[in-house]
């Protein structure tokens, strides 16, 4: 998992140690180590350290996790404030890291200060027109040399959830899973926004100057023409194709005898070719639409579009995160039993900035 965003340390060795161990625990879970003995021990140690820090110095002396079941402890305002602060400090690097690590082939992540908007300068890709002037004509048409500026403003986004203090006191709370799920939830939300933005771009391609870079149907002619046009429009840049594994599976030669250099093994293993006619194929990770997991599953990205982007140029979508901290605050309406409701609050925005020409092939 990539380390991208930082957080402001408390300059308290014990407290910073709890935050860093919580972040490391989340990393381990995201890396598939959630079922290991080492992870279980780290989760147990983190749970005990977090509860001890939150409970010490309150209305009663802390003697162990059993104390967490006592309402005098888990309803104490100082206990809850400490819990909120530590959780927010851990989520601050976790959320943007998860958001940017799973689907970053289509978008760039930018961080701005509180109250700021992200500004993106897009240079004109048109060459200046050379005018043939007749005798007596002073000059030709004036052409602008200025750039266009696009801005994206972050908005408040929240997740509200509950935890059970009895579960925590019993040492059964899987903190790595909980924190990773918060990050994954924001990532799914962002991916849904990105998919909607990209769909709008294709629908209104003329407004973004890419109508001529969209082809219908997967044929060799469409593949080569779209790749050539995108490359030439971006100064001869290398072009790569992006799509879900189902979409990329449609990129096949018409003649099966073309598989002479082991490409068939790649299809059996990955489901698609690694490269087709000098254009690398890169799989876009997909995710399920929230609230469809336990019903009829719906995926965020369509399986009938292959995007073509220039390598090393600006990506078409930008995700903007405002500030360098995530806030966690209690829900004043949480239940009166042994549960605690809290809200994870952050500011982010998603917008389209076509700074480089892109293309796509619609398979249906």
Q: How does the SSE layout of this entry go?
A:
Layout: H1 13-30, H2 37-55, H3 71-74, H4 77-102, E1 107-112, E2 118-122, E3 148-152, E4 155-164, H5 165-169, H6 175-203, E5 214-216, H7 220-233, E6 239-243, H8 245-248, H9 263-270, E7 275-276, E8 279-283, E9 305-310, E10 317-330, E11 339-352, E12 359-362
Parallel strand pairs: 1-10, 5-12, 6-8
Antiparallel strand pairs: 2-3, 4-11, 6-9, 7-8, 9-12, 10-11
Count of helical stretches:
9
The chain-level mean pLDDT equals: 81
β-strand amount: 15-25%
End-to-end Cα distance, whole Å, is 35 Å
Which bin fits the share of residues in helices? 25-40%
> What is the number of strand segments?
12
The helix/strand series, from N terminus to C terminus, equals HHHHEEEEHHEHEHHEEEEEE
Strand order of the largest sheet: 5-12-9-6-8-7
Low-confidence stretches: 1-5
């Amino acid at each position: 998992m990539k380390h991208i965003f930082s957080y402001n340390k408390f300059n308290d060795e014990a407290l910073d140690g709890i935050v860093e161990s919580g972040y490391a625990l989340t990393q381990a879970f995201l890396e598939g180590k959630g079922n290991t003995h080492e992870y279980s021990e780290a989760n147990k140690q983190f749970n005990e350290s977090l509860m001890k820090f939150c409970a010490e110095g309150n209305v009663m002396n802390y003697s162990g996790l059993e104390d967490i079941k006592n309402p005098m402890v888990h309803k104490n305002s100082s206990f809850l404030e400490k819990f909120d602060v530590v959780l927010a400090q851990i989520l601050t690097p976790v959320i943007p890291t998860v958001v940017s690590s799973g689907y970053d082939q289509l978008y760039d992540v930018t961080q701005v200060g509180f109250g700021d908007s992200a500004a993106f300068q897009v240079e004109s890709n048109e060459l200046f027109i050379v005018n043939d002037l007749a005798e007596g004509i002073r000059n030709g048409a004036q052409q602008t040399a200025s750039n266009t500026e696009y801005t994206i403003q972050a908005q408040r986004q929240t997740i509200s959830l509950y935890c059970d203090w009895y579960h925590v006191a019993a040492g059964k709370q899987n903190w790595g899973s909980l924190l990773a799920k918060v990050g994954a939830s924001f990532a799914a939300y962002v991916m849904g926004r990105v998919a909607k933005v990209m769909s709008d771009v294709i629908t209104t391609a003329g407004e973004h100057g890419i109508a001529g870079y969209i082809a219908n149907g997967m044929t060799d002619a469409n593949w080569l023409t779209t790749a050539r046009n995108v490359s030439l429009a971006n100064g001869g840049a290398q072009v790569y194709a992006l799509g879900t594994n189902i979409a990329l599976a449609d990129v096949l030669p018409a003649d099966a005898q073309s598989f002479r250099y082991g490409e068939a093994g790649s299809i059996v293993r990955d489901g698609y070719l690694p490269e087709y006619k000098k254009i690398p194929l890169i799989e876009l990770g997909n995710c399920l639409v929230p609230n469809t997991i336990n019903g009829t599953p719906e995926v965020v990205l369509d399986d009938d579009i292959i995007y073509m982007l220039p390598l090393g140029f600006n990506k078409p979508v930008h995700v903007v995160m405002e500030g360098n901290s995530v806030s966690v605050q209690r829900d004043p309406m949480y239940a009166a039993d042994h549960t605690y409701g809290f809200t994870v609050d952050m500011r982010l925005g998603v917008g389209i900035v076509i700074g480089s020409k892109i293309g796509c092939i619609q398979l249906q």
